[in-house]
Amino acid sequence: EVQLVESGGGLVKPGGSLRLSCAASGFTFSSHSMNWVRQAPGKGLEWVSSITSVSTYIYYADSVKGRFTISRDNAKNSLYLQLNSLRADDTAVYYCVRDTGDLDLWGQGTLVTVSS
Amino acid sequence: SYELTQSSSVSVSPGQTARITCSGDILAQKYARWFQQKPGQAPVVVIYKDSERPSGIPERFSGFISGTTVTLTISGAQVEDEADYYCYCAADSRGVFGGGTKLTVL
After folding, report:
1. pLDDT tens, residue by residue, A72-112
2. CA distance A102 to chain B (A)
3. Do B88 and A62 touch (CB under 8 A)?
4. What is the 3-state secondary structure of B24-93?
């Protein structure tokens, strides 16, 4: 089955860190760029970061630049997002998304809650 | 940075045509996509490259671009089409979503 499964979310205090993972299956992971998109509770979608197929190019939204780091391990069919210096406004569901030129495959999301 | 502007809500009766618009200067240069998101679910792409429909998406969904505005049209909207709809565009290696439009069908 073609799918993306995120994990690693949870409750963290402001200033803390978290590492999200996304396990891909059912397709050739190493052939595709990947993205992270987040959605704060009751709010709209926000693009967070993208990485090309062999990590040549990496991009971030201004809101997370310098705090978040995207990476991938093609041998493990996995995508990661390291979240540092977390703030309350980083609270959101984080989605792992395949990019074929279109964001055509989404995971179910993992919830990150930043609260003291 | 680029911005995409959507109206916050649209309401139609079942069988009527729903039109959701998305405006932004970047749309004159880059393709738009439309995503449907139902409560508690991940988004699903319903239109890509401004007007292309993925396999499995009903024919009642269509997309159109005029200048800097793209329009998602749902012809003969069904109750199951009630959802939030987001336009999206990738430009300068960054993604931008519109603010979302809540479609009510009742």
Report:
1. 999 999 999 999 999 999 999 999 999 987 889 999 999 99
2. 7
3. no
4. CHHHHCCCEEEEEECCCCCCEEEEECCCECCCCCCCCEEEEEECCEEEEEECCCCHHHCEEEEEEEEECC
